[in-house]
């Protein structure tokens, strides 16, 4: 695909070569995220960061990524304080904000809303999550992380075994990640969910039709066996009709040190898109794994900035100019990454 000026709405728009190109650019951003160099490649550009649903890391990391390339960020952070609460349509909001920005990141609770917004926008739009549907930039950073983690153990994505655990019905990150993994060969998926929260049938049949192995199970301990990666998810409470309904499933599948040690391979990578629900009745990923070397959750969040910088650099066509205006960081950074 041609990234220049493109909307990023779904992982389905990528071919393997696009992902490779993106990851190559992401790798080249390390001196900037590591605060060794400062770039002004996007000096004067404005990101419209439009979040109509709760977000911490997606919103902030997109903002940081844009800042690290020298651009400025303008944002809204919820529906209540935006004109959407006065009845403004997505069309009008898109026309207005795209007049103020060079690129927009948009998150909204409704499936398809970001596509609708993009159609009216005068500048490229990145889907920061449209309800339970898709979250393409998260899938890209997850895949980038998996690739790096497996490479460290001399393994590759083709033929990989991944267990996805939790609310796979409403979790947009697993919808996007599993579809992105379809670009690779012979992935083995073990989908561990309560039967009411299974991965949408359409995605499961697409995975099978593309030649991947899919096992759906409610037996977590058996399902954890023999995987390269285990990807935990939170029960997506906001997608249920009530908290009480979400409570039925909360805490059903948990990973802690004892369960991990008993069932996983010694090098199984532990991932989660975050936020993890650390309340006592949920706790799908226990704090007793915090010091475990295979816990990749904070490497995922760090990688998110690299991948999002790469997206901006390619969409706004400065990937080859990032170093031109760069200079060394002037402030104290010692020990920052320990
Ligand atoms: C996820 C999301 O918003 O879909 N969070 C994120 O963007 N990293 C996952 C979640 O909220 O559970």
From TrEMBL:
Gene3D superfamilies xrefs: Aspartate/ornithine carbamoyltransferase (3.40.50.1370)
InterPro entries, per the entry: Asp/Orn_carbamoyltranf_P-bd, Asp/Orn_carbamoylTrfase, Asp/Orn_carbamoylTrfase_sf, Asp_carbamoyltransf, Asp_carbamoyltransf_Asp/Orn-bd
Pfam families attached to this UniProt entry: OTCace (PF00185), OTCace_N (PF02729)
EC supergroup of this enzyme: transferase
GO biological process terms held by the UniProt record: 'de novo' pyrimidine nucleobase biosynthetic process; 'de novo' UMP biosynthetic process; amino acid metabolic process
UniProtKB keywords: Pyrimidine biosynthesis, Transferase
GO CC term (a single one): cytosol
Annotated Aspartate/ornithine carbamoyltransferase carbamoyl-P binding domain residues: 7-147
Annotated GO MF terms: amino acid binding; aspartate carbamoyltransferase activity
Superkingdom of origin organism: Bacteria
Domain Aspartate/ornithine carbamoyltransferase Asp/Orn-binding positions: 158-314
Pathway listed: Pyrimidine metabolism; UMP biosynthesis via de novo pathway; (S)-dihydroorotate from bicarbonate: step 2/3
SUPFAM superfamilies named among the record's database cross-references: Aspartate/ornithine carbamoyltransferase
Keyword Nucleotidyltransferase: no
E.C. numbers: 2.1.3.2
Catalytic activity as recorded in UniProt: carbamoyl phosphate + L-aspartate = N-carbamoyl-L-aspartate + phosphate + H(+)
Similarity remark: Belongs to the aspartate/ornithine carbamoyltransferase superfamily. ATCase family.
PANTHER family hit by this protein: ASPARTATE CARBAMOYLTRANSFERASE, ORNITHINE CARBAMOYLTRANSFERASE, MITOCHONDRIAL
Function: Catalyzes the condensation of carbamoyl phosphate and aspartate to form carbamoyl aspartate and inorganic phosphate, the committed step in the de novo pyrimidine nucleotide biosynthesis pathway.
Stated name of the protein: Aspartate carbamoyltransferase
Organism of this sequence: SAR86 cluster bacterium
């Amino acid at each position: 695909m041609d990234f220049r000026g493109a909307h990023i709405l779904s992982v389905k728009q990528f071919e393997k070569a696009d992902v490779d190109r993106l990851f190559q650019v992401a790798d080249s951003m390390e001196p900037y995220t590591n605060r060794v160099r400062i770039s002004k490649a996007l000096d004067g550009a404005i990101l419209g960061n439009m979040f109509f649903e709760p977000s911490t890391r997606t919103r902030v990391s997109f903002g940081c990524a844009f800042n690290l390339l020298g651009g400025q960020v303008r944002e809204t952070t919820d529906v209540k304080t935006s004109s959407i609460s006065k009845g403004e349509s997505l069309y009008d909001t898109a026309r207005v904000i795209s007049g103020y920005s060079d690129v927009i990141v948009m998150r909204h609770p409704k499936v398809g809303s970001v596509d609708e917004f993009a159609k009216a926008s005068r500048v490229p739009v990145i889907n920061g999550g449209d309800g339970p549907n898709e979250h393409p930039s998260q899938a890209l950073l997850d895949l980038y992380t998996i690739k790096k983690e497996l490479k460290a153990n001399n393994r590759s994505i083709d033929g990989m075994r991944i267990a996805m655990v939790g609310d796979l019905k409403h979790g947009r990150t697993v919808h996007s990640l599993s579809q992105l993994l379809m670009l690779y060969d012979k992935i083995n998926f073990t989908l561990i969910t309560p039967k009411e929260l299974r991965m949408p049938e359409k995605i499961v049949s697409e995975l099978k039709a593309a030649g991947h192995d899919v096992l759906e199970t409610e037996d977590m301990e058996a399902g954890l066996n023999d995987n390269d990666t285990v990807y935990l998810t939170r029960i997506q409470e906001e997608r249920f009709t009530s908290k009480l309904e979400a409570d039925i499933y909360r805490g059903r599948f948990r990973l802690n040190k004892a369960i991990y040690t008993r069932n996983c391979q010694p090098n199984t990578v532990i991932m989660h898109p975050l936020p993890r629900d650390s309340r006592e009745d949920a706790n799908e990923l226990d704090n007793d794994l915090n010091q475990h070397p295979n816990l990749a959750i904070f490497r995922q969040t760090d990688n998110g900035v690299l991948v999002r910088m790469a997206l901006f650099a390619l969409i706004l066509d400065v990937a080859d100019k990032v170093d031109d205006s760069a200079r060394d960081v002037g402030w104290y950074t010692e020990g920052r990454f320990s």
